[in-house]
Amino acid sequence: MQPIRNASVSEDDAALKQVTLKKEPTGEWFATFGVEMDHELPEPPENPEQCVGIDVGILKYAHDTDGAAIGSLDLSDERERLEREQRKLSRKQHGSNNYEKQRRRVAECHADLRRKRRDFLHKLSNYYAREYDFVAVEDLNVKGMMDSPSNSRNRASAAWRTFLSLLEYKCKREGTHFVMVNPRGTTKECAACGVSTDKPLWVREHSCPACGFEADRDANAAWNILSRGLEDIGVGHSESTSSESPCDSDGLRKSRSDFRTPVETALPTDTDSVSAKRVVEAGSPTLNERTASAVSE
């Protein structure tokens, strides 16, 4: 019998409770160990200093209030390979040995897509949970969005619900505040003055007709998400994580008089575009190596 490869490091205080065996469509067997560890989760800080709002999307997977725009994971080569193998499978005689071999190849393609997507999501969620004291995201109705025929495939590939679930449990593990806010109007609403303006999807810049505030539309949404999150949970924080925040030290919108001119406060010039490949390879989207410990788990 071959030895079992263990994907995690065992803890000295971990008590083994159950073992679950599962055979994947690829023919591989996996053993899942359920353990109980005798230690308490850290408490989130009363006054978080590093706060971030995250807006997820399709063109960019995530846009945060620190100015990082994380690219979506490019799995086009993997999808093309899957489609080729599926076409080959359709030409095989059902029940034959050749059909079974080809079915496993298709299953391996599905598994490859799933593993690469989850690897990206694990590393990105781990970064935010470790880097920040407070994380705010939208409480998205992903199922309802899947029912819409527009971009349903891209939304399914984005796996937003998986990302949010991973982010939630990792924030609990790290002692980070995690808040999900009502997503209604986060894109339309001006992060500076609160005035709502309709924008078609192809308009990628927010330009407020009331106060003149200009920003990338996703950056504007991220600031609204952070502001709502801080209001919902009712915590204070000592400083903003961005030099051009449209919110004051209590997470509330500044008045128009608190802003400089729109040219000086425009956020797109401060946006750092980060490829998904960097997240996968480095385990972190940060460009200034602020936190070297944000690695995959």
Question: Keyphrases for this structure?
Answer:
297 residues, 8 helices, alpha/beta, disordered C terminus
Brief characterization of the structure:
The chain is 36% helix and 18% strand. It is α/β, with parallel strands linked by helices.
- Class from secondary-structure proportions: alpha/beta
Mean pLDDT across residues:
78
In terms of DSSP E residues, the strand content is 15-25%
Rg, Å, rounded: 22 Å
Q: How many strand elements?
A: 10
Percent range for helical residues?
25-40%
Largest sheet: 6 strands, mixed
Number of helices: 8
* Termini separation: 28 Å
Low-confidence stretches: 238-244, 247-269, 287-297
Order of helices and strands: EEEEEHHEHHHEEEHHEH
Globally, the shape reads: flat
> Order of strands in the sheet with the most strands?
7-6-3-4-5-10
Provide a descriptive summary of the structure in words:
The chain is an alpha/beta fold and 297 residues long. The protein has a domain at 41-74 and 119-282. The protein contains eight helices and ten strands. A six-stranded mixed β-sheet has the order 7-6-3-4-5-10. It has a two-stranded antiparallel ribbon with strand order 1-2. A two-stranded antiparallel ribbon has the order 8-9. Strand 8 and strand 9 form a beta hairpin. Residues 238-244, 247-269 and 287-297 have low confidence and may be disordered.
